[in-house]
Amino acid sequence: MAPWLRFPVKFLYLVSGLVIWATHFLLVYGLNGVACARRFSGTAGWENDVVPAAVLAATAVAIVINGVILIAAVLGRGPGIGAEPDASVRNFWQVTTALLAGLSIVAVAWTGLPALMIGPCA
Amino acid sequence: MTDKMQHDPAMPLPNGSPRPEGEFERLKATWEPPRGISFVTVVNNTYVGLFYIGTAFLFFVLAGILAMIMRTQLAAPQGTLVSQETYNQLFTMHGTVMMFLFAVPAVEALGVYLLPNMQAARDLPFPRLSAYAFWAYFFGGLAFFCTIFVGLAPDAGWFIYPPLSSSEYSPGINIDFWLLGIGFIEISAIAGAIEIIVGVLKTRAPGMSLDKMPVYSWAMLVFAGLIVFAFPAIILGTALLELERAFGWPFFIAEKGGSPLLWQHLFWFFGHPEVYIIFLPAAGMVSMIVPTIAQAPLVAYRLVVLAIIATGFISFGVWVHHMFTTGIPQLSLSFFSAASMAVSVPSGIQVFAWIATMASGRVRLTTPALFIIGFLFIFTLGGLTGVMVGMVPFDWQAHDTYFIVAHFHYVLIGGMVFPLFAAFYYWIPQASRTRLSERVGRWVFGLMFAGVNITFFPMHITGLIGMPRRVYTYPAGFGWDALNFVSTLGAFIIAAGVALFIFDLLRRFRAGEGNAGNVWGGGTLEWLPSGNYANRSIPRVTTRYPLWEQPGLADDVAAGRFYLPDNPTGGRETIVTSPLHAEPQYVVQMPGPSWATLLAAFFTAAFFLLLTVKLVTPALACGVIAVAMVLWWLWDTDPGPTHPPVDIGGGIRLPVYATGPVSHAWWAMVVLMLVGGTLFACLLFSYVFLWVTNPSFWPAADALPPIGWPVLAAAFYAASSIAIATASRLLGRGPGRSVAAFNLVLFAAMPLLIAAFTTDLWAHWQTGLRAPKSGYAAAVYMIVGLQGFYTGVLSIMLAYTLARSLTGRLNAVRRSTFDNTMLLWHFGVAQGLAGLAIVTLFPRLVGSG
């Protein structure tokens, strides 16, 4: 890896849990917004079946990805962590990456849960 | 070499002592501020930071006075102190000034002052940029505030929602003052954010790896990141609304295919992160002050850093909680409600970490400690009501009532004003030869704490029993009378506390050479002995609290036994370090005072303000002068390797020049590109949003420009980028015939870029599409217009680069100017291609509405 790329790549890995949260958030909000505004070419009611299922599927996928990031960070895997020569920097990176992924799991789950209870275009 | 150096605290000191005679005097002389009238051109962070903080505090007082007038008006029913029109201006200016002219500049100012000291850098990497940011804010801010005296202040609330703020319902120039007046503040904030990001990542003391970085630096890094990603939304929003008002481009007019809701999305995508833009630096300050008042390291450093980063991210997922009553589908509201709950988790983590730190040590109840305790109490209450209004059904009841006023004042005063006062009391001994009075400080705290609670706690009840916000008076008999009277009483108690603080400040604050020293026993680097030159030498850091855990550090630094105890190039310098481990990379030669910076700021502010009052020609003249001043200031900031590598101590020899990804200038350009990319993303969101809300205005495929036009424009874009890449290769070949070829190829890139833009513009124009016709047309021309803006900026940059080449200031080694131009050029071209693709393909994919 080019030296100047080390920091951006490591930093992106550190916040990857939150990036997953943001992606999931924009996806489900965008999907619901467009589905309700456009009714998918006028097929009324279609969104009531598709949107909750899509939101829950996206939520499950995001939680799984965040879980993988969390486990990888705990095991010391991931861009630059294993090769980090300074133990205190390595430890900081591992713990922070894992905890951010953990927090993101909670945030993603909270975002997705309403799809079980509330109709998309109510 | 440097890795081993940093991680071995047992290594000998880098430089011996006594130091050579005259070395310290030379260092001091280099960093001396100019004297006489030229003093206003000073760029040292210690002076600019203080000017900045002082100006922000002035606006706090001015906006506070507006609040006092409002509270006096509302003290009793049927108040007649001010008219409805004046009251509208008062609450609009109070909110606008507090948010844009006090809160953001105040925390940015404190960063400019503190960060170099805390990271043992001699200054931030772009001192002239800091000075420019300050002066643009100073000139523009004062002129903007003065509109209240002539009845021209904006009057549609600090978020100026259309259609109220449209030219139809607000035909005067009051709203234009908001839209254009905020322009220079946005520029100032972004300039400061770039400075802070590069400063935090590239100018830390050797050894200060990210895990040893002060929490305040982390907070300022995330704060600046929030500005980079949040401010473009409001920049775009203000541009769109001004275009609608001035030229009738109907972005927010529903019957013409626009949407007033688009403004709310853009405003709050900026507006809610804005709350954290204000709060996170305050959290950083608290994280620095609490360990000192408890004389114990911060508990759970990593969790606090995590909380700051998480807050920064999640704050972008809560903007719709300001729009719960706009008719957005309930499931969508639930997503934002969930994010509003999620963001309270990291805030809670920080609060518990601070309480645990206090519990782990012995807290001395000094004035900063009192303000911290007051902050914890008030901010936590504000946070709890925040969770309440984050719940959709509750918000539907409380929306636009005084409950909301109470909530956000608890959050903002608790979360920002109290930490700021704690910071004033805590760090004034670092800036002044005398500290403030402890006895007076306790009175100040007592008055402010009591005043805030007496003012704002009753407002919860006033709101719950139905009093709406923004009313200039109210009838008797609704049960609001006594509560309003108590609130007004409390406001005067706050004012008394602030007045007492100002009295003590005027009595005791003495800036200049020397300070009161480490009066609190702080453990971080800002408490090292310092002067205009910052520290005598730049220390090697092996811990988060160097003054507590590295014995003799202060003496060794002051004796010049650490790095760079002199100025080997003869000018102002600091060490640039790597972002992860803070390994020394090169010594940067920093520019000194310049009139160009001050004049650039003045004419920038003049450009925006003259535009507001429709003096277009003088405004354009000021704009041209401002650009010329910027180019003048930049002319001597790319000096090249004027000196062979220098010895900074410990056997480390560093170059005095760098270009490309190592260079601090390259990092600044990357951050600027992030700002540009975010603005473009917001524009694409607006384009798609208008399709979602008003598809009937979308054209059929046969009404679009034939596909040949965008293909031709794309070819021009690609050719211009290829020309720049070729020029880069020619420049790398060194002197000789390739210089002429370089100049020629470089110049050729400009007409190619202009051709790309004009082709794109003509393609839409010849179909008969006109921006005032519909939201769709306005959005298309906005995308094309943004590319026109880039074309103009890049052409100026290219002409400047060419001028440097023709005057012998550009070569294979001294090429930082070219590299930065090249970076932005490729970015501009990539954005142009993306814009072409969206505008060409999206309507064909979705079809006519």
What structural keywords apply?
heterodimer, A: 122 residues, mainly alpha, elongated, B: 849 residues, two-stranded antiparallel ribbon, 24 helices
Secondary structure elements and pairings:
The complex is a heterodimer of chains A (122) and B (849).
Chain A: H1 3-14, H2 16-42, H3 46-74, H4 87-112
Chain B: H1 2-7, H2 23-31, H3 45-74, H4 84-118, H5 127-146, H6 174-202, H7 215-247, H8 260-294, H9 301-314, H10 330-360, H11 367-389, H12 392-398, H13 402-431, H14 438-464, H15 481-508, H16 546-549, H17 553-558, E1 572-577, E2 584-590, H18 595-612, H19 616-635, E3 646-649, E4 652-654, H20 664-693, H21 708-732, H22 738-765, H23 775-806, H24 816-846
Antiparallel strand pairs in B: 1-2, 3-4
Helix pairs in contact in B: 3-4, 3-5, 3-15, 4-5, 4-6, 4-8, 5-6, 5-18, 6-7, 6-18, 6-20, 7-8, 7-9, 7-20, 8-9, 8-10, 8-13, 9-10, 10-11, 11-13, 11-14, 13-14, 14-15, 18-19, 20-23, 20-24, 21-22, 21-24, 22-23, 23-24
Please give a quick description of this structure.
The complex is a heterodimer of chains A (about 120) and B (about 850). With about 120 residues, chain A is mostly helical.
Separate helix tally of chain A: 4
Q: How far is the first residue's CA from the last residue's CA of chain B?
A: 64 Å
Mean pLDDT of chain B: 94
Radius of gyration of chain A: 18 Å
Largest interface: A-B, 46 and 42 residues
| Strand segment count of chain B | 4
Strand content of chain A: under 5%
* Order of helix and strand elements from N to C terminus of chain A: HHHH
State the major sheet of chain B: 2 strands, antiparallel
Helix percentage range of chain A: over 70%
Provide the structure class of chain B: mainly alpha
Q: Unreliable stretches of chain B, pLDDT < 50, 5 or more residues?
A: 1-7
The helix fraction of chain B, in percent, is: 55-70%
Helical run tally of chain B: 24
Rounded average pLDDT of chain A: 89
Q: Output the strand order for the largest sheet of chain B.
A: 1-2
- Give the percentage of residues in beta strands of chain B: under 5%
Low-pLDDT windows of residues of chain A: none
Shape assignment of chain A: elongated
